[in-house]
Amino acid sequence: MSIHEPPQGERLQKVLARAGYGSRRRCEELIDQGRVRVDGEVARLGRRVDPDAARITVDDAPAPTAPGHVYYLLNKPVGVVTTADDPQGRSTVIDLVPSEPRVFSVGRLDRATEGLLILTNDGDLSHLLSHPSHGVIKEYLAQVHGDPSPQAVRRLREGVLLDDGITAPARVSRVAPGLLRIAIHEGRNRQVRRMCTAVGHEVLRLVRTRIGPVADTSLAPGTYRELTTAEVRRLGEAAVGRVTVPG
């Protein structure tokens, strides 16, 4: 037993099974294969943990094991701001979810943009999803002025020059006249809007439709739901490159 291991706590395989990683036997196999870490150390069979305090990862992705963590998927409407508090008194995304426990948005959507946003009190997952180095794909539908030509679509795919540098390659397709599906992994301010303007097509309406592997076409504007354990796990896996995002 490691000197760092707490003498009390739950069996690690039990904690992992509750978090959706399979049966206890399956979780024992994950541990035995060296795929589970506790506070940065490779776990061993028989390890006991405090799920409230321990940082548990599986294949380097954070495991959603802490009972106090909550994860909300919100469909943000137009006119709502993505801040915890607005000095101008405008409606915020925090107003649309339960007040306790306190949560924060993962990344931002500007006031005029609608669509999916994650709110959580899990700092580790929030960092993974927000940091551009992890490259989690965010997908948007953009209604634009005019109908982009194949050349304009190609420019968006290959990268366009903005005032803060050239954008990374993006997944872009023309869904219908004046309607583009754009998927990016960078998190620059108002990036999709600026990209479209750079190729001569101002955005008229912008909706985020997917965050990594998570999408929900049935979620009405202004409403939220809790993410499933499997969705939280797959978001973490996407952030460390363990899953492929549809596209």
Give the SSE map.
Elements: E1 10-11, H1 12-18, H2 24-32, E2 36-38, E3 41-42, E4 48-49, E5 56-58, E6 61-62, E7 71-76, E8 104-105, E9 114-120, H3 123-130, E10 138-144, H4 150-158, E11 161-162, E12 165-166, E13 171-176, E14 179-184, H5 191-198, E15 203-211, E16 224-226, H6 229-239
Parallel strand pairs: 9-15
Antiparallel strand pairs: 1-4, 2-3, 2-5, 5-6, 7-9, 7-16, 8-9, 10-14, 10-15, 11-12, 13-14
* % residues in beta strands: 25-35%
Low-confidence stretches: 243-247
Pattern of helices and strands: EHHEEEEEEEEHEHEEEEHEEH
N/C terminus separation: 45 Å
Share of helix, binned = 10-25%
Radius of gyration: 20 Å
Query: What structural category do the secondary elements indicate?
Result: alpha+beta
Average pLDDT, all residues: 89
> Tell me, what's the shape?
globular
Provide a count of the helices.
6
Number of strands: 16
Major sheet characteristics: 8 strands, mixed
Structure, described:
The structure is a single chain. The protein is an alpha+beta fold and 247 residues long. It contains six helices and 16 strands. 21% of the residues lie in helices and 26% in strands. The strands form four sheets. Strands 7, 8, 9, 10, 13, 14, 15 and 16 form an eight-stranded mixed beta sheet that branches. Strand 5 and strand 6 (61-62) form a beta hairpin. Helix 1 (12-18) crosses helix 2. It is globular, with a radius of gyration of 20 Å. The chain starts with 9 loop residues before the first strand and ends in an 8-residue tail after the last helix. Residues 243-247 have low confidence and may be disordered.
